[in-house]
Amino acid sequence: MAGFKQINVGVIGTGWVGGIRANACAQTVLVDELHIAEIDPVRQAEITAETNPASMTDDWRTLIENDSIDAIIIAMTPETARFPIVMGALEAGKHVFVEKPIAPSLAEAEQAYTLAKASNLKITVGYSRRFDPRYAYVRKALQNGLIGEPVTCLISRHSTRELGEKITGRSKMSPTSIGGVHDLDFVLWCLQPRKPVRIYSQTTGKLFSRKSDTPDHQWVMVTMNDGTTVTIGIGWILPAGYPNFVQAWIEVIGTEGALSIDDTHKEIQYNTVHDGIRYPMSSMPGEQIDHIFAGSMLDETKHFLEAVAYDRPTMVREEEALLVMQVYNAADLSAELGEPVMLPTN
Ligand SMILES: NC(=O)c1ccc[n+]([C@@H]2O[C@H](COP(=O)([O-])OP(=O)(O)OC[C@H]3O[C@@H](n4cnc5c(N)ncnc54)[C@H](O)[C@@H]3O)[C@@H](O)[C@H]2O)c1
Prior knowledge:
Mean pLDDT: 95
Low-confidence stretches: none
Order of helices and strands: EHEHEHEHEHEHEHHEEEEEEEEEHHE
Structural class: alpha/beta
CATH topology of the largest domain: Dihydrodipicolinate Reductase, domain 2
Bound molecules: nicotinamide-adenine-dinucleotide
């Protein structure tokens, strides 16, 4: 295909999600060399066996300084320590894919986009729902007016307490800012060109609050400028059912019909005498099953690699990424104040 150029990619942090990204890089002809930075020696050994990288280091600066690397995928945690890596990669002239959140604050995210634009580099963020065909279908149906005018949308998503503890153990972030971002991005993408104008949020905490001030659940209600209402709930205290289990129920009601996604991950039931019923293939990013990837993260990673290799735009645009941040910041402020927060409409 015209314009194709194999690229060299660095992945920083190869835990659960970075491991999927690194494997996606190792599997595709788009990538010539894969370079990895990972501080955990056990993960270093595991991921080396899986992906046979051209180099492995425990210092991310080694990848930033490597002139042969075209693009960097940043999936290390804690999220709060990532911004210097994002800026370092851009300053070194590398395209960047970063797991959400793109930066700790809106001002820093804007700084990263400004630098990327000035340097003609791509920067994008992992809003993986867009690469799930069911979600893409709902967006297409709404954009094509299949259910008339949208009236109201509901998303209720819950993950296990095991995952909640992992997330809240590393950064102090609200359920919406770390988990609900995916759903906010999805809904705002579906409802374009409508804009969010009013945000109200409430949190509740009865379990995690025994050990910290982390809430167990957060509801966010968004009113769009045409009056469409959106309600998104994110919780992370489900009992463990399968590693990284997540369930979501989505419905969009319109003037001429309704759309729903049953994303409760109950399609495959695995029942044993020892463990009872479990639900495989039930995590958000998905998982590799021998020769096939069950989930959205492989396609999302390939999309970024193709954008770099073919010099195409990435799917999540700057104004979209920044708008999602504005909404979750407003939601966290609303939860703190106990009253609605208005967004600028321009
Ligand atoms: N898009 C999605 O569906 C989705 C799903 C889950 C998580 N995420 C995001 O992915 C990110 C990673 O989450 P995770 O669950 O994979 O975390 P994880 O803890 O499993 O992995 C993080 C890895 O980074 C490594 N690391 C830490 N500091 C490092 C450093 N300085 N240099 C190199 N490596 C370093 C750790 O050793 C670990 O292996 C998070 O930001 C999370 O929000 C996205």
